[in-house]
């Protein structure tokens, strides 16, 4: 690990202002950043420790939603009774991610900003446009079993790793950030992440020094919720395919649906066309297949991850059966 300067921020304003020095990174739990620093994938010159800032509360909102501080540990968020009862897909997603020890340290804000687990991103001898812009992408044509099939480009096919972000995408979460000039910004989670295009190293719309202070959830959606994760082993593995879903059935027809997907996309993936394919229709096999058709219309495998496309279809259909109470 390369040497670096370290300072601890006493206020959110001081933390954001500390980014005036180039090569600076925030650190809280450090569950992703420290690994990357050890491998010299990330080589910051200065770390600003934000772990002591007063951003670790979960509070009720006047509209019936929740405000979640950026430093709330994943374990605390998953165990909160309001989250379990009103946003069960979020609790399930958090418990499906990583180990108990990591969840105790990982924070809400850090989870949203964790980097891809692409093998070539972690290998500094490999070509990776996300790590070294313009160097190429060894995952294309390489070992790409865990890579994305949606939202990719000729420059990057890395999948997004977060479980929590998938559930928050389905729940229409909004981020509140603090910029170095002291102003706040509200960013719908739908607008946070950027497709790789020809600049895969630019992953979000956050500017330098912009600090996530909290995540706001609207009132819970009506109907049933679930989070289902398909992975190579039962614990401590990233999703091959995951589904976060909420479906509301009224008078024998689907009145509302919110679906987000992990493991498939270069970001937490949500496709309005898949949801529209469900609305107003009876919950039945042909309805579920139509939603899968819409979701996967533009999916493209790269050899080793071709299996994700039929796996996503089967997983979505099974989830929709459970969410609507439809027999197999």
SSE diagram, text form:
Elements: E1 5-8, H1 12-17, E2 24-27, H2 33-38, E3 46-49, E4 58-60, E5 66-69, H3 74-79, H4 81-86, H5 88-96, H6 100-105, H7 108-112, H8 119-122, H9 164-170, E6 174-178, E7 184-188, H10 189-192, E8 211-217, E9 224-230, E10 241-250, E11 253-262, H11 272-276, H12 285-295, H13 308-324
Parallel strand pairs: 1-3, 2-3
Antiparallel strand pairs: 4-5, 5-8, 6-7, 6-8, 9-10, 10-11
Helix pairs in contact: 5-9, 12-13
The Rg value, from CA coordinates, equals 20 Å
Q: What is the share of helical residues?
A: 25-40%
Low-confidence stretches: none
> What is the average per-residue confidence, as pLDDT, rounded to a whole number?
96
- Outline: globular
Protein architecture, described:
With 328 residues, the protein is α+β, with helices and mostly antiparallel strands. Among the domains are: 5-48; 227-324, CO dehydrogenase flavoprotein, C-terminal domain (Enolase-like, domain 1). The protein contains 13 helices and 11 strands. The strands form 3 sheets. The protein has a 5-stranded antiparallel beta sheet. It has a 3-stranded parallel beta sheet with strand order 1-3-2, with no helix packed on it. Strands 9-10-11 form a 3-stranded antiparallel beta sheet. This is Xanthine dehydrogenase family protein subunit M. Keywords: FAD, Flavoprotein, Plasmid. InterPro entries: CO_DH_flav_C, CO_DH_flav_C_dom_sf, Diverse_Substr_Oxidored, FAD-bd_PCMH, FAD-bd_PCMH-like_sf, FAD-bd_PCMH_sub1, FAD-bd_PCMH_sub2, Mopterin_DH_FAD-bd.
């Amino acid at each position: 690990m390369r040497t670096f300067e370290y300072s601890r921020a006493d206020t959110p304003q001081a933390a954001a202002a500390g980014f005036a020095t180039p090569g600076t990174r925030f650190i809280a739990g450090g569950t992703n950043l420290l690994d990357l620093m050890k491998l010299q994938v990330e080589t910051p010159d200065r770390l600003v420790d934000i772990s002591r800032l007063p951003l670790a509360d979960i509070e009720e909102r006047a509209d019936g939603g929740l405000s979640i501080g950026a430093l709330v540990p994943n374990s605390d968020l998953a165990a909160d009774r309001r989250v379990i009862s009103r946003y069960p897909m979020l609790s399930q997603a958090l418990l499906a991610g990583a180990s108990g020890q990591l969840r105790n340290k990982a924070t809400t804000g850090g989870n949203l900003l964790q980097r891809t687990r692409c093998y070539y991103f972690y290998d500094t001898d490999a070509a990776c446009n996300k790590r070294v812009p313009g160097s190429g992408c060894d995952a294309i044509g390489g070992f790409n079993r865990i890579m994305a099939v949606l939202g990719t480009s000729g420059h990057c096919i890395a999948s997004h790793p977060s479980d929590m972000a998938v559930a928050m995408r389905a729940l229409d979460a909004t981020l509140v950030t603090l910029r170095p000039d002291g102003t706040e910004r509200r960013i719908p989670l739908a607008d946070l992440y950027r497709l790789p295009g020809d600049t895969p190293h630019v992953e979000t719309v956050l500017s330098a020094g912009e600090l996530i202070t909290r995540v706001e959830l609207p009132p819970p959606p009506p109907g049933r919720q679930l989070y289902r994760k398909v992975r190579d082993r039962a614990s401590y593995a990233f999703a091959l395919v995951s589904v976060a879903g909420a479906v509301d059935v009224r008078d024998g027809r689907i009145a509302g649906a919110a679906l987000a997907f992990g493991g498939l996309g270069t970001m937490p993936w949500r496709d309005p066309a898949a949801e529209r394919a469900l609305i107003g229709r009876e919950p039945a096999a042909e309805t579920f297949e139509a939603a899968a058709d819409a979701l996967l219309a533009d999916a493209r495998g790269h050899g080793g991850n071709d299996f994700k496309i039929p796996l996503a279809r089967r997983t979505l259909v099974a989830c929709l059966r459970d969410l609507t109470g439809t027999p197999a």
